[in-house]
Amino acid sequence: MHDPIHLTEELRLLRDQLRRFMAEEVVPHGEAWEADGMVPRDVLRHMGALGFLAMRHPEEHGGAGLGAMASLILSEELGRGTFGGFSATVLVHTDMASPHLARYGSAAQKAKYLPAICRGEIITAVAVTEPGAGSDVAGLATRAVRDGDDYVLNGAKMFITNGVHGDLFFVAARTDPDVKGSRGISIFIVEKNTPGFSVSRQLDKHGWRCSDTAELVFEDCRVPAENLLGEENRGFYAIMDNFQNERLVLSGMAIGEASKALEITLDYLKERTAFDAKLWDKQGIRQRLAMLAAQVEAARQLAYHVAWLDESGEDCVAEVSMLKAMSAEVANRTLYDCVQFHGGMGYMRESTIERMSRDARLLPIGGGATEVMLEEVAKRL
User: pLDDT tens digit string along 88-100?
Assistant: First the structure.
């Protein structure tokens, strides 16, 4: 397929470099990381040394100062690597957690943490979701109460990517219980090993197996007041703002996974013989695969258009929501058919397609469920 019209030569070189890195440094080791339940930190530091973790961050702190297009290329190439857990580990750090610091942190906070974040020496996580509140951010219950020079946090967070082995957490908590839900939330920078902050358990997931995911607990956890990120009671709006970036990269990941799954399946169909002919010779199979390819390409073109809108400073909440809903559903339809076309082998754990089908299942759930995304679109029609 042709490259999107907005792809510059610099971005093409970035894509090629990322694709080489994934082929050489990730794919040969991914199965071992799946068994271990985490991505080794030296791999992330290697990515940091190559500049892959710092593309969106300010140049004065070691970043490249690039825009949404770079994030989309990163996420698409991660998706093509076939290990959704690796993609999640990286993208939470680069595009879902650390942007909170880059966008809303004070000069002192950014100087303290961002250089090491860019190098991969500090791995970040964002702690918003709770046992009783997911996409409904305004309904979160974790409390933060001011006490002298500290805030005291109490509550629990659920499904936190990088939660077990992360180093720095951006935690959403309610600071004003007497106002409308969205108006009383703040974000705090919480370092690993802060007294009162603990990982209550590592979660056992259907897919994304090499991504460490945790339930977190805060029990009278004292956080210095200087660790308030941005303005008090304005955290909800920061979370909503960064959701747009999160949804863009999850869409890129979905498109990358679907594209790679089609390539793998096409190779299989051209080799596998049934009823005295290659499966690729069956018209019904060819046409189903062709329609999936058309849908994936449509999602890909929309993704690059949305990234271009974002870089142009346009309000594109509706388009991002459309993209997130469509790309996640397309990826799952694609992986469903790819498993089907692999037959029994598609159901075996030794098959790449089997793992990819499990990983893809989270895409219509995480970062805003498809149903939530469609409501965001409907409100703007």
Answer: 999 999 999 999 9
237-379: CATH superfamily: Butyryl-CoA Dehydrogenase, subunit A, domain 3 (1.20.140.10)
pLDDT of 187: 97
The Cα-based distances of 233 to 36, 178, 184, 185, 197 in angstroms read 39, 11, 4, 5, 22
* Of residues 332, 354, 333, the one with CA closest to residue 345: 354
Whether 246 sits among the annotated catalytic residues: the reply is yes
Set 34, 76, 130, 246: catalytic member: 246
Stated pTM of the model: 0.96
**Residue 134 pLDDT class (50, 70, 90 cuts):** low
Q: How far is CA 246 from CA 17, 25, 88, in A?
A: 23, 25, 11
Selected from 3.40.50.300, 3.10.150.10, 2.60.40.10, 1.10.540.10, the CATH number assigned to the domain covering 9-123 reads 1.10.540.10
The per-residue DSSP string of 225-291 comes to: GGGEESSTT-HHHHHHHHHHHHHHHHHHHHHHHHHHHHHHHHHHHHH-EETTEEGGG-HHHHHHHHH
Question: Residue 1 pLDDT > 80, yes or no?
Answer: no
